[in-house]
Amino acid sequence: MMKRLIPLFTAFVTLSAAGQPAWADGYVFVRSIGGSGQFALPCSVAADSAGDVWVADCDNNRLVELNSSGQSLRTVATLEYPESVRLDPSGNVWVACAGGNAVEEFSGTGTYRGQFGSYGTGDGYLDWPDGVAVDKLGDVFVANSYSNTVQVFNTGGQWQRTIATLGTAKPGCVSSPANLALDAAGNVWIADQQNDRIEGLTSSGGFIASLNGSNVAVKNWLGLPAGVTVDSRGNIWVADTNNNRIVEFNSSGTYLTQFGSLGTGNGEFNWPYDVAVDPSGNVWVVDQQNNRIEEFAPAPEPSTLALLGVGAAALIGYRWRQKRAK
User: Fold this and answer.
1) SS3 letters for 81-135?
2) Largest Cα–Cα distance in the chain?
């Protein structure tokens, strides 16, 4: 994993609401985008191979592209309540538009390529699509939040199969599914909101695992998780919405780390709704009720700090993080 070095100015001058360095259990707060009218209840985020970040800005009914520095490049399109944005292996951008019960496709340069979908509750219809993901075979996975299904279409919009339906206790069933993510093997990971878990299924619907945060290290089980992504290492990142934190699992479902707490300060969240990891390993979080996107980066290792010739104040900041993590 590539690690971007964070300027010491950012790492040690940025403070949390409590006046402490905004470290986040192995990740350091980099920047906040929005919060001053730029976004209105954003719902989803995705990062492309160039490091640009795509945001489904729900209440503003638009798709926005940011560069890797968080600067707004453009409004790509006006859409009907875009709930989810994901990129396919070719770099095309797919958006689940819940308000229009449609899935729309754009090229990586923002050119409109087409759409499919119409309202209904049966196979091949959409009912408040809240998640979308596309695999290398051209299968388009769509999570219907209101009809409680995950369906698969081809890129032309023809229904192929339904891989998950309404249920609670039974593995592979869902209740109010939201964002989706695909791993390198083509398995789909579903933010199964009302069941407080992440469901892993094969592309044909075979059950893999349920991630519910019951590992004691997570302290509390997942609460209404709305966002999920898989990074280049195969690790699974979850926007644990009701618990106002981000949780990371490895590809086997073992808990790795978490960060975040309720608040409006740097590194804090109010209803985090989605998460993305860019090619450099930076983590982008949709902080929905704060109307912003927050970026975090892997914290520098002690050897990195030494090579940079960090002064005493910086080392104190690092030692504070080490103490906090114990």
Assistant:
1) CEEEEEECCCCCEEEEECCCCEEEEECCCCCEEEEECCECCCCCCECCEEEEEEC
2) 64
How open is the CA angle 233-236-237, to the nearest 5 degrees? 115
Q: 64 - beta bridge partners?
A: 55, 75
Q: Which residues of 69-94 are buried (b: 16+ CB within 10 A; e: fewer)?
A: ebeeeeebbebebbbbbbbbeeebbb
Which candidate, 184, 187, 238, places its Cα nearest to that of 212? 238
Q: Which two tokens stand for residue 155?
A: 């890129």
Q: Of 108, 45, 127, 48, give the one whose Cα is nearest residue 294.
A: 45
Note down pLDDT in tens along the chain; length 326 residues. Answer: 333 333 333 333 333 443 333 445 588 999 999 977 899 999 999 999 999 999 999 999 999 999 988 888 899 999 999 999 999 999 999 999 999 999 999 999 999 999 999 999 999 999 999 999 999 999 999 999 999 999 999 999 999 999 999 998 788 899 999 999 999 999 999 999 999 999 999 999 999 999 986 665 666 689 999 999 999 999 999 999 999 999 999 998 888 999 999 999 999 999 999 999 999 999 999 999 999 999 999 987 655 544 444 443 333 333 333 333 33
318 three-state secondary structure: helix
* pTM for this entry: 0.86
Q: Is residue 47 within a helix (H) or strand (E), and if so which, with residue range?
A: strand 44-47
| Single-letter amino acid code for the residue at 129 | P
Residue type for position 202: T
- Helix (H/G/I), strand (E/B), else coil: 307: helix
CA distance 231 to 55: 18
Sign of the C-alpha dihedral computed for residues 98, 99, 101 and 107 taken in this order: negative
Smallest CA-to-CA distance from 180 within 67, 87, 55, 282 is with 87
